[in-house]
Structures are given as structure tokens and as C-alpha cells.
Write a structure and sequence with these properties.
3 domains; binds 5-amino-5-deoxy-1-O-phosphono-D-mannitol; alpha/beta; Glutamine Phosphoribosylpyrophosphate, subunit 1, domain 1; Rossmann fold; about 35% helix; about 25% strand; about 600 residues; seven-stranded antiparallel sheet; 24 strands; 19 helices
Length: about 600
């Protein structure tokens, strides 16, 4: 989603802003811009498209500037809607959504002010000009009190000394000290050179000036602790792979190994284990890929622990007036920990009395401040917009929870069945290039279908999501039994259908669906761990998975599907790391 960078220091700001924006490119965006403070006021460069379009701004002089990558929400992707927005002596970049921007704009128009863009963000610059009484921080506090919605803001003023003013509500913002100056950014990689970093909480402000950073709330000045630094701030490198997505797929075995938790063995989780003992109902809230890992968790938890699990898309949960009974555990799953819908659902669940456990991959992300318990997947930073290794890591952690819940309920479940998953995933990865032989068939299809029953259903959904988001092919995932209730009408000569079949007890039932596809000329790619099925005449091509505990098989079966999406995207000439219109973390509703 949108990215922010700001610099104030001894060196020219422009190259630092452009470098910071390049490091934020992975978040997804459709236009970019920078503004640098010079003797004659601001120099502003904006481009639709890639950050590389800003290279000509590199020679600007001036040691104070702000930059932005924009993912359009209000107003089309264009230069006029790109940030920074300038009004009077103020330049502003904004992440988030100002929900009451229409009424605020009316107010400004009534004063005769004109707007240069269609965005919600520009209102901030107008309001700053209106409330400016010579103290920029005071004006910013007054403006923020008038805004509804979410924001991370970086503001610069054309008079006075070089300084940046930042604010945060429901959208990440960090500030830091580097060797040559001070930085503000929406995400750590943009400011990897900073030796000291501070994360703003909701309602906090910071002023970066004269080599020093000072922190405030609406009430007054505060002190802040430095952020703990981990590997998260590493500058992303492809490490010899063609794309981050491919590199991240090859990191799946490590991400599974690092995310398995033997809760019984690990005293750090004592309090969480006690909650598990009392849990009678589970609700899972998540979006996209994380929602699919929730579906896999439902199968595992219900089967192993016999506790009812409801999985709800977070953007629906928040508006469905959810019933939260006593002893309900809510698992809020979010790779980034910043997805606005998941944050809102987790907040609502907490208000209604649930115990909320966040499953996230990002330390100190917003969801960690909402949840009672934080369970980290340790997949390492994921750069590609399409989630891969973080999904496998989520499954590893959620399966661990399923085993722990079963144990807490006195039911038989073996953690040992999970220990083999890293090596089985490495075996699965070793064969992924084989999938390339079906890529031409898929790449030229009008539409593609993924089917699976029971635990395989989640892999069908995830395989389909991966394919559509990076190859741009229309695709759907279904429970295999649903095909005949409508979708079969769309199967014709050469329609590719991926059938995932790892549950022996359901094998013949799913093979019925395969036969129905074959009878209509469709081409079935079977992903299975049952060798004899691969030889059936209805099967066009097959991928054979290593044998594993059937309930946990989605953690393996999804790997060839991720590879299918990747190679199909590359075959079609798409950049799999930066799919059009999509963002890595969706911080707006
Ligand atoms: O960071 P989150 O796990 O909360 O993100 C949720 C979805 O936006 C995300 O999984 C999205 O669907 C991915 N692009 C899928 O590859």
C-alpha cells in the first residue's frame, strides 16, 4: 500500500528519498512523488508509474524533503493525485484514508480554497494552512483532531528551519536517526541505515529538527523507547533468484521449521496454554491468504480437538454483529499485522469479551498492540506481494495450536507429525520446476478452476488466489462437490482444472468430479500423494507429493500451486513480485 519517506539532515535529501521509495516499492503503488525544500520554496516531482521515473529529481539541492508511493483510493492514479500535496507553505504526504474529507473540503471551498487533486489527503495541507498560527506542531495537532479515519502523515513547511513533522493514527509510522540525518518512514526497510528507530503509537506526533527527534501526544511532550531491532530491517535482496517470490518459496522449509511451536514443551506459552484449556469456541478472522490458512486451521482444530471453529473474512466480521460466547478464543491472522479489516475485527472481538490471539509475522505490528496474546510466525520478511512462505508458516503455527488444543482437551494428538514438515516441504520444492510443462496450457486459458475436498479445500482456494493475483487469469477455487452445482457449465475443451487430492477417505468422491471434468474435455492437473490415482486416464498431468499426515497436507500441496502461479505469471510476461493494483499490506478499509 502507500509508502512514506522523509529526510532532514546534512546531505541532499532527494537521493535519500528516491532510495527509500525504491525500498518501499514491494508494498504496491501506482504513482510516486517527492518534494524537497529549497531556498525558493518546494521543488516537487511526481510521476504516474514507477519510482524510477523520479530519477531526474536526484540532483535537487536541499537537505529536507518528503516522498511517497501512492496506491490509489480516492482519485485515479495520476500525477495530479500523486503526493506530496502542497497548499500555501505546507507539503504533506499521507497514508490511510480521511473518512470525513468531503465535509472538510466543503468547508475549505466555502472559504474560496481550490483543490489541485481528487484525493482525500490534500485536505490536510489546506487545514494546516488554515490553522497555522506560526507553530506547525500545534497546527498539526489541531488538524489531526479534526480528521476521521486513519493516517500516517509527514509534513514540511517552506519557511522556518529545516524540519519534519509526523503524526500517526491506525497507519504505521516510524522515525529514526542515521549518520547524516533524521528519517521518517512508513516501513523499516526504507530507513535501514538508521542506528536508532522509534515506532509512533496512535495519537503520537514527532518533530525532527536540528539533529534531534522529540515526541508528543495531544497533551504534551513524551519520552519513547527505541524499537528493538531484528532481522526485519534488513534491506531486501533477491539473493540470486529472479524474483522475491521464487526466493521466498525456497525459504518455505525454514519458515515452517521456525514457526512450529511445541506449546507443551515451551514454558513461554504457559499463559496461552491455560487459555487453550478453557477455550470452548474459536473464531478466526483474517483476509486473503491468511483467511485460507484459517480454513485449514478449522479442519485441523475441529478434527483434533473437537472445538467448533468459525472462520470469517475480517471485513465481514466487523459488520455482522458477531456473537461472542463466553470462553471464545479469537485468532486474528495477519502476515503484516497491519491489515485494517483484521485490526478492526480483532478490536471488535476484544470489546465483546473474546480472548484475542494474533498470529502475525511482523514484530511490533499494530495487531500486536490489540491482541491479548501474540503468536509469531517466523517466516522472515516477505517482500513479494503474493504471500507464499508466510502462508506455510501460518499453517505450521496453526497446526501447532490444533495439537496443543487437542492435548489441552485430553485428546490424542502428536506434535511429532509436525516435525517432519520442513523436510517434506524441501522434498516438494525439489520438484517444482516440473510444473512448467503445464504452464502453456494454463497461460492461454480463459479461466482456471481449483477443486479439493475436506482439508484440500483450503489449498484449492489458495492456489486459485495465487494464480489470479499474479497471472491475472480468471480463476475460482471450490469444494470439489460444488463443481456439479453450477461451475461445470463453464468446463469445456481444454479448460484447466487443478484437483488437489490428499485425503484417502475422500479420494473416490473427488475423482468423480475429475471424471466429470474429463468427460467434458477439461484437462485435469492432479496434485496428490496417492500414486495410483496419478495413473488414471482422466488425469492429464500430475504432481506427486511426499506422504504426510493427511490433515496437514495443505502445507505441502500448496507449494506446486504457488509454483504454477509463479511460472504462469512469468510466462505471461508479468512481474510476479509487483502485481497490478495490489498492495502488500492493505491498511485501508
Ligand atoms: O498481511 P495480511 O496477512 O493481513 O494480508 C491479508 C491479505 O491482504 C493477503 O493475504 C493478500 O491476500 C495476499 N496478497 C495474498 O497473496
Amino acid at each position: 500500500m502507500c509508502g512514506i519517506i522523509g529526510y532532514v539532515g546534512k546531505e541532499p535529501a532527494a537521493p535519500k528519498l528516491i532510495l527509500g521509495l525504491k525500498r518501499l516499492e514491494y508494498r504496491g503503488y501506482d504513482s510516486a512523488g517527492i518534494a524537497v525544500r529549497g531556498k525558493e520554496g518546494f521543488s516537487v516531482y511526481k510521476r504516474k508509474g514507477r519510482v524510477s521515473g523520479l530519477e531526474s529529481a536526484k540532483d535537487l539541492t536541499g537537505g529536507c524533503g518528503i516522498g511517497h508511493t501512492r496506491w490509489a483510493t480516492h482519485g485515479e492514479p495520476s500525477e495530479r493525485n500523486a503526493h506530496p500535496h502542497i497548499y500555501g507553505k505546507f507539503a504533506v504526504v499521507h497514508n490511510g484514508i480521511i473518512e470525513n474529507y468531503r465535509e472538510l473540503k466543503e468547508e475549505c471551498r466555502a472559504r474560496g480554497e481550490e483543490f489541485a487533486s481528487d484525493t482525500d489527503s490534500e485536505i490536510v495541507a489546506h487545514l494546516l494552512a488554515f490553522y497555522d498560527g506560526g507553530n506547525v506542531l500545534a497546527a498539526l495537532k489541531t488538524v489531526c483532531a479534526r480528521l476521521k479515519g486513519s493516517y500516517a502523515l509527514a509534513v514540511m513547511c517552506s519557511d522556518g528551519e529545516d524540519a519534519l513533522y509526523v503524526a500517526r493514527r491506525k497507519s504505521p509510522m516510524i522515525v529514526g536517526k542515521g549518520e547524516t540525518g533524521l528519517y521518517a518512514a512508513s516501513d523499516v526497510p526504507a530507513v535501514a541505515e538508521c542506528g536508532e528507530l522509534y515506532s509512533l503509537a496512535d495519537g503520537e506526533f514527532a518533530v525532527l529538527k536540528g539533529g534531534d527527534i522529540r515526541f508528543y501526544t495531544a497533551e504534551g511532550e513524551i519520552r519513547k523507547e527505541k524499537m528493538a531491532r531484528g532481522s526485519a530491517e534488513d534491506i531486501p535482496e533477491k539473493g540470486g533468484y529472479a524474483h522475491f517470490m521464487l526466493k521466498e518459496m525456497y525459504e518455505i522449509p525454514a519458515s515452517i521449521a521456525n514457526s512450529l511451536v511445541d506449546f507443551e514443551e515451551n514454558s513461554r506459552f504457559l499463559a496461552f496454554n491455560i487459555v487453550l484449556c478453557h477455550t470452548e469456541y474459536i473464531q478466526i478472522v483474517a483476509c486473503g491468504t491468511a483467511y485460507h490458512s484459517g480454513i485449514a486451521a478449522k479442519y485441523a482444530i475441529e478434527r483434533l480437538a473437537r472445538i467448533p471453529v468459525e472462520v470469517t473474512v475480517a471485513s465481514e466480521y466487523r459488520y455482522c454483529n458477531p456473537i461472542v460466547k463466553e470462553n471464545t478464543l479469537v485468532l486474528a491472522i495477519s502476515q503484516s499485522g497491519e491489515t485494517a479489516d483484521t485490526l478492526a475485527a480483532a478490536t471488535l472481538a476484544k470489546e465483546r469479551g473474546a480472548t484475542v490471539a494474533a498470529v502475525t509475522n511482523v514484530r511490533d505490528s499494530s495487531i500486536t498492540r490489540i491482541a491479548h496474546f501474540v503468536l509469531y510466525t517466523n517466516a522472515g520478511r516477505e517482500i513479494a506481494v503474493a504471500a507464499t512462505k508466510s502462508f506455510n508458516a501460518q499453517l505450521a503455527l496453526l497446526y501447532s495450536i490444533a495439537v496443543a488444543l487437542a492435548t489441552a482437551k485430553g485428546r490424542a494428538a502428536r506434535f511429532e507429525a509436525l516435525r517432519v514438515l520442513p523436510s517434506l516441504s524441501a522434498q516438494t520444492l525439489a520438484g517444482i520446476e516440473e510444473i512448467k510443462k503445464v504452464v502453456p496450457l494454463f497461460a492461454e486459458a480463459d479461466s482456471v478452476y481449483f477443486i479439493g475436498r475436506g482439508a484440500d479445500h483450503c489449498a484449492a482456494l489458495e492456489g486459485s488466489l495465487k494464480l489470479k493475483e499474479i497471472s491475472y487469469l480468471p480463476s475460482e477455487g471450490y469444494p470439489a462437490g460444488e463443481l456439479k452445482h453450477g461451475t461445470l457449465a463453464l468446463i469445456g475443451e481444454k479448460t484447466p482444472v487443478v484437483a488437489i487430492l490428499t485425503q484417502r477417505a475422500l479420494a473416490e468422491k473427488t475423482m468423480n468430479a475429475v471424471s466429470e471434468v474429463y468427460a467434458r474435455g477439461g484437462k485435469v492437473l492432479l496434485v496428490t500423494n496417492i500414486p495410483e490415482l496419478a495413473a488414471r486416464e482422466e488425469v492429464f498431468e500430475s504432481v506427486l507429493l511426499p506422504a504426510c499426515e493427511e490433515l496437514f497436507s495443505p502445507i505441502l500441496s500448496v507449494i506446486p500451486l504457488q509454483a504454477l502461479a509463479y511460472y504462469t505469471a512469468v510466462f505471461r510476461g508479468n512481474d510476479p513480485d509487483k502485481p497490478r493494483n495490489l498492495a502488500k499490506s492493505v491498511t485501508v478499509e
